[in-house]
Amino acid sequence: MDKILVVDFGSQYTHLIARRVRSIGVYSEVIPPESIEDSLDDAVKGVILSGGPMSVYEESSPKISREVLLGIGKPILGICYGHQLISHILGGSVSIQESGEYGISRFYISRSHPLFDGLPDSFIVWMSHRDGVVEPPPGFDSLGYTDITRIAAMADDRRGIYTLQFHPEVVHTEYGLKILENFVLGICGCERGWDPVISLKRFLEEHSGCEGGAIVAVSGGIDSTVTAVILREIFGDRLYPVFIDTGLLRSGEGEWVESLFQSLGFKNLLVVEASELFLEELRGVVDPEEKRRIISRLYRDLLKIVASELPDIRYMGQGTLYPDRVESGATSRYADKIKSHHNIIEEAGLGLKILEPLKDLYKDEVRILARHLGLPDEVVSRHPFPGPGLAIRIVGEVTPEKLELLRRVDDIVYEELVASGLYDRYWQFFPVLLSVKSVGIRGDHRHYGYIVAIRGVESLDAMTARFARPDWDFLERLSTRILNEVDGVSRVVYDISNKPPATIEYE
Ligand code: XMP
Fold first, then answer.
1. Residue whose C-alpha is closest to residue 426's, from 386, 365, 469
2. Domains of the chain
């Protein structure tokens, strides 16, 4: 099967490049820069150098040598940092620009090129850089520019090296996928031959001989449910799904999980009631990472206890996805850690081997698998809900009272979303309780209550997100119901932050 390698220089978008290539139907792997030479087997038809947070001039920034770069001997596409690095290595000049260029920009093609086949003369691109190529290296021609960046794309056709300052992998770049297709199918000549179901088959083949039993923590979300269904193929009745009620869940979540697993034919779901423990340990804690650490530790300890009480448990399944690993800084030593995702539990000290059948997949690929495995629509289209639950949707200290308040608001938001037919339009749409109070008026009386922020986003993979734009009447219905029905909330605000720079969850 043809393969495209994506060399990871630490960009938040690195895995997105691989994901996009796979969505074209071509297998793609992410590798660190030091593995380039070892990874160049016959299947590799092209190499993409990712973006990264550093400057090519920084001493500690990740680099590859001229020999390694030119030794690749297959078409190369450099993106953002990759574009600058290629220029730097091959004798061009890169320096800090007068102005940074972050977000949306218009790119103008100055020279037609196979990379831009089928594209208009100018289009919108997603930029995120301060450095820029000022002088292309010998042998390179500039292919296009923006109002801020003079050389926003370049090519050396003789050596088969192409570079882009913008990010074709990000959905906000118009024709981004077409550019990647032009590179992968056109320039590299790859044959299509990959889809997520193939990755599942490979996982099952590789693990068919696993002995002993396994546990998997489940939440009713798509990732852990798909993981449980996959692991059941390997372990049968020796797989125990474990549902831990942390007390940080939305209302009705426990009953939903029990009925879901019953309908999926699981007979050995274990329910661990641990609300008091979680709330006790979270008391007085306001730091988001501290909250995440505590929840993660308790989760891990409880799973360890559960595993020790079951017969011959040797494995633990986790529904970790690519983005979880990316954002936890688990995939690259060059990437910055944004948040520690609680659903990544390390093997060390647990005494169990970790199985992560979804670790290389993105959410939309998991949805493809979920449909393939026959999971019900309500699981497939369910909005993601973070492992740490409402604890990271209550800014500041988590208390039983705040949880109760947020659950009531959350019920209203969910009901209204479904009633308006908007649920499936958004990636996520939920309320957040800000732990600040504001003055309001109720029936001629002063009312001093919490502020609720409504956060809605559109996204394809949670790596980038655009704030949702429902109509004002819908938002007014939400705010009216929340303010009328939930005593203790004095004000409702709507969040208009995109990711980046904001994240989807508040903590
Ligand atoms: P952020 O807030 O990082 O979220 O933009 C990206 C996506 O991940 C979800 N999320 C989590 N999921 N454990 C999870 O299973 C976590 O700790 C966690 N934190 C964030 C978030 O809901 C969004 O879909």
1. 469
2. 3-187 (3.40.50.880), 196-380 (3.40.50.620), 393-494 (3.30.300.10)
